[in-house]
Here is the input.
Amino acid sequence: MFDESDPGNSAARRSWKLTGPDGLQIEVLQLGATWASCRLPLADGTRRELLLGFETETDYLRQTSYIGATIGRYANRIAHGRVSWQGQQIELDRAPGSAHHLHGGPKGFDRRRWRLIEHTIDRLRLALHSPDGDQGYPGALDCELSYRMLAGDAVELHFCAEVSRPCPVGLTSHPYFNLDGCGDARSQHLLIAADRYLPVAGDGIPAGPPCGLSNTGFDFRALRPIAPDVAGQRLAVYDHAYLLDRSCASMQRPAARLQSADRRVGLEIFTTLPALQLYTGQHLAQGTRECSSAWPDCSGIALEPQFLPDSPNHPEWPQPGCWLLPGQVYEHRIAYRFSALL
Here is the structure.
């Protein structure tokens, strides 16, 4: 499954471009297996860039907002960087000054150079080896990620992983979407196929079990603006996980729909993962302040399929288990289907 002798290793390219059968174009970086660009052809013959990104690799190394990156070994937060397996406590690495483990640790998969296995006009396969003890995680992990262009202006990401010891595994992709191409991304319209969300404290750690959406500002069961314009201001911000309807797991039903404010571009997200994190980018300016051109707060929306935050410490939650055992294969998919509406 993970062939270290693959001749693709000799390729020295820093990025790869893919083109779909209907004209969608994407670019993926070797650093972090980062989804750096997504250009959709519109009806008027122009192309619109739908992702936040940077021109240089230096900026990707300077930013701390995980823009476009592949996240691993475990996406989102783990409280106090601690998990336990059969009575043994495991300490995970935390960024300096941070109380919690986030997105696989300060030197997670987003900071690694992935190994090329295959590249064609419409497919890219990358692999990564994570040694025993990497960021505090037990055992060695080998993973593979493929990007595949599909008909209908769609991109499918396929994640596979194996471990040598029991380990929590939750890989995802972290693109920031602005389907309008620029401006406050909260003006986009969003639908999430979920009737429960996870309440969190100010530090993003769960404050209780998943709860209902009725009569809350977290309800996106019908397509609506992410943050409505009130007297010229958009005030609502989110960094919350939603427990997806189980019917989404077959990928026959979209987990989320996003529509540009100008109604010219749509996006449907499909996934086999049980939850979706909605982050409205309210810390983007801080996270990109060292870059040659910083992104303003809320200039992109992250929609991250994953397990619920801190899931390794909550086996009672109504979702599949997130601990991967030796001999098992972690396998999940995320598909993004774009459409030019006008």
About this structure: The chain has one domain: 7-340. Residues 7-340 form a domain with the Beta-galactosidase; Chain A, domain 5 fold (CATH 2.70.98.10). The chain has a mean pLDDT of 94.
